[in-house]
């Protein structure tokens, strides 16, 4: 297997046809077709199926693409790494976080960090729960802020970060706002906004309802926690969220109520295999920790050695 085949494979995935991929790769269509065929032969996998005039990934193709993209992304990053080595400058610090934490935690923490390290370059990405673990395992990032342990990748280094209670988020004026705490049974009487099946926040919500012996029926499903919060303030329903994620929307338009019984959310920091702490990463962890303390105060319990 060679890199050209992987790049050709990616081009077909992105553009959906051999003709378009051939144009991007500056190859003939027969040459592109041969590259894909030999790749499938080497892997002994059927990567594509034809739907109308487009080539779409098979289930096996989707799994392979997820892994191949990590390899290609790291290769695409090599010119930057070489440039930094030649310049003798500071290495770019690569950060990834859940969308629900990007605005309310990572961004203000980076403001603290830049004040201490004005010359430090960094990149910040936002990814979903499953993607974060995979990309960190592939050494594409130096540090990740994620939700819930354990991690599914044994090679990823995981450190406890902080715990906080899950909260019921309701729009202002909602009937549940009058309660001191909310049970799953009481939530079930109203329209519920939930994360899509397969996502960790959805597993957590299902666990909460299952423990209460209540069937979870969702009015709205989404893949974005931030969007779920925004839909709450628009009056579309209620959801379960953490205080940091709720800070992404207008605080004057919602209320947060404790769950009854309470449910603890665990946040962790993830590091790539072979991670070696540097002054920059140590400082960043400290800035993240200080931001959690400032934003959540008594509502957060710091669970790791983040000083």
Q: Could you characterize the architecture of this molecule?
A:
- Helix 9 (200-211) links the parallel strand 8 (193-195) and strand 9.
- The strands form 4 sheets. Strands 4-3-5-12-6-13 form a 6-stranded mixed sheet, with helices on both faces. The chain has a 3-stranded antiparallel sheet with strand order 10-7-11. A two-stranded antiparallel sheet has the order 1-2.
- The protein is of the alpha/beta class and 307 residues long.
- The chain folds into 3 domains: 3-76, Arc Repressor Mutant, subunit A; 79-163 and 266-302, D-Maltodextrin-Binding Protein, domain 2 (3-Layer(aba) Sandwich), CATH 3.40.190; 167-262, Periplasmic binding protein-like II (D-Maltodextrin-Binding Protein, domain 2, 3-Layer(aba) Sandwich), CATH 3.40.190.
- Helix 2 packs across helix 3 and helix 6 (99-116) crosses helix 12.
- The mean pLDDT is 89.
- It is globular, with a radius of gyration of 23 Å.
- The protein is built from 12 helices and 13 strands.
- The protein has helices spanning 3-15, 18-25, 29-43, 59-76, 78-87, 99-116, 129-137, 184-187, 200-211, 225-233, 243-246, 279-296; strands spanning 48-51, 54-57, 93-97, 122-126, 143-147, 157-165, 167-171, 193-195, 220-222, 239-241, 254-258, 264-271, 300-302.
List the helices and strands and how they pair.
Layout: H1 3-15, H2 18-25, H3 29-43, E1 48-51, E2 54-57, H4 59-76, H5 78-87, E3 93-97, H6 99-116, E4 122-126, H7 129-137, E5 143-147, E6 157-165, E7 167-171, H8 184-187, E8 193-195, H9 200-211, E9 220-222, H10 225-233, E10 239-241, H11 243-246, E11 254-258, E12 264-271, H12 279-296, E13 300-302
